[in-house]
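In the previous lecture we treated proteins in isolation. Real proteins rarely work alone, and many bind small molecules. This record shows how such a complex is specified: first the sequence, then the SMILES for flavin-adenine dinucleotide.
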Amino acid sequence: MKPADIAVIGGGIAGAASCVALAQRGVRPVWVAAPPAKDRARIGETLSPAANTILVDLGLADLITRPIHRPANTSFSAWGSGQLRERNAIVHLEGPGTVLDRAGFEADLFATALKTSPRHIETTVQHARLENDKWHLGFANGEEGVFRFVLDCTGRASSLAATQGTRKRADQLVAAHCFLQQTDLDVAPTPATLIETVEDGWWYAALLPSGDMVISYFSDPDLLPAGVSRDHGVWAGLVAQTRHISRWIDSAGFSLGDHLPILASAGTTWMTPASGPNWAAVGDAAAAFDPLSSHGMTTALWMARQASEAIFQAHKGSGDALIAYNAAVQKGVREFLTQRQKIYRQETRFVDTPFWLRRQKDDRPNCKIDNLP
Ligand SMILES: Cc1cc2nc3c(=O)[nH]c(=O)nc-3n(C[C@H](O)[C@H](O)[C@H](O)COP(=O)(O)OP(=O)(O)OC[C@H]3O[C@@H](n4cnc5c(N)ncnc54)[C@H](O)[C@@H]3O)c2cc1C
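The predicted 3D structure, ligand included, written as tokens:
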């Protein structure tokens, strides 16, 4: 197989893992990806236990054994009740999940993938055109490339897949997240994760392996207080309304300082279809989930493995594998939506408020999934 046969676009977990998975099949793609920004903390650090076996399959198990990460043994949740309950990782058959140094994990994965890809183009794709069954990609550096197959790993932008299908959306969830530093170093905080529901959404806090803490508030854009990402008083007022999160911040020796939260889209959206005869979307480009499940990174790794095999089969002449890949993605989305609804329905204290009302009702007909087998 010639190198220009396949292009992988995107330098996140999906793109890097796809390069690794293709290399396992003796395929060396052209990788169009900007390297991960070194100076930027990455949001989303809980790697679910289900990732463990996929990482082994991809030959990447060593990536999470570095001491920059820690096992995700302990989590507490006040969901459906004001009482904080402990959930222990021992219940997972795959073993505990991992709280990642996300930037470190992505940098290590990127470096591993680079070794497998002889042609790495440090740029972005500006436009994609399908002509005579070939992809014509125009890069931001002015170059162009022609490819038989493309894996779109461009995250929620789904830069190439969006030209071939429709991006569907189940909700408008948005995250306001902020990293906190410990100010009282006499306290040794418990390495844990904490979830708490409130009237207009839910909170997540985790002690990171670095010793910093991340706190995230998930709500809908129309329910976020005005100025939350600009006015420290508004942000501090929001945190103060929590019962457990605010208490943990204080008792673990952290303070809000003058940091303001950063807003990020966190809703459940997916591409339909997620693949065609000569392309496949991988990771968030195919389906991005409400982070409640902490499955985004694991799904990106799983899709990288599946899509790489499907593209490999398609190159050998079997188009069925790409059809099956799309069906598997759509089935995964449908199962996720069912699961998501079950979890939101467990919180019955706030059923009269818009955030919970929107998620308690059966909205699945509004997010009809096409192309199911
Ligand atoms: C608030 C929040 C919290 C989360 N928490 C968790 C968590 O705890 N656990 C978990 O498993 N998941 C979590 N997730 C989800 C997880 O972060 C994503 O599922 C994961 O990052 C998907 O990886 P990806 O490679 O598909 O996409 P991305 O990480 O978005 O990577 C896409 C890459 O493509 C590049 N790109 C975009 N357009 C182009 C282009 N045209 N050309 C070339 N490159 C391009 C981007 O620069 C980027 O590098 C969270 C998400 C959010 C929003």
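Summary for your notes: Confidence is low (pLDDT under 50) at residues 364-373. The chain is about 30% helix and 25% strand.
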